[in-house]
């Protein structure tokens, strides 16, 4: 039986598959394909984080999400310290999520409405 995946996998997955007695076909992606696939993987992992029900599962999914974020940072040559600095700046400007606020609505006065 052959099962099709056609998706980005971690580097050691093929050898783990073969260690279990199966064979697999893999190919290396060019930069454009890798970039697009990482973006798709980011969404996939974010959905898995959102679906996690237990703390241990959440930790595992957050680790997987962080792995994709790290790969994107490497691909775009972004220093993690740069991201952290912008995160801190945005936190200082806009706040964090500590107060658990839900914005329900905004009433905009007619005179301040711009089109």
From TrEMBL:
CDD domains from the UniProt entry: NTP-PPase_COG4997 (cd11532)
Entry-linked Pfam families: PRA-PH
Top-level lineage group: Bacteria
SUPFAM superfamilies linked: all-alpha NTP pyrophosphatases
InterPro entries tied to this protein: MSMEG_1276-like_NTP-PPase_dom, PRib-ATP_PPHydrolase-like
Protein name, per record: Putative house-cleaning noncanonical NTP pyrophosphatase (MazG superfamily)
Biological classification of the source: Bacteria, Bacillati, Chloroflexota, Ktedonobacteria, Ktedonobacterales
């Amino acid at each position: 039986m052959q099962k099709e995946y056609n998706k980005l996998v971690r580097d050691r997955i093929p050898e783990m598959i073969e260690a279990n007695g199966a064979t697999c076909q893999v190919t290396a992606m060019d930069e454009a394909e890798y970039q697009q696939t990482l973006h798709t993987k980011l969404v996939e992992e974010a959905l898995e984080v959102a679906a996690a029900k237990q703390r241990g599962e959440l930790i595992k999914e957050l680790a997987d999400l962080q792995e994709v974020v790290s790969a994107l940072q490497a691909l775009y040559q972004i220093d993690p310290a740069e991201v952290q600095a912008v995160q801190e700046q945005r936190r200082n400007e806009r706040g964090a999520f500590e107060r658990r606020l839900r914005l329900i609505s905004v009433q905009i006065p007619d005179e301040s409405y711009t089109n």
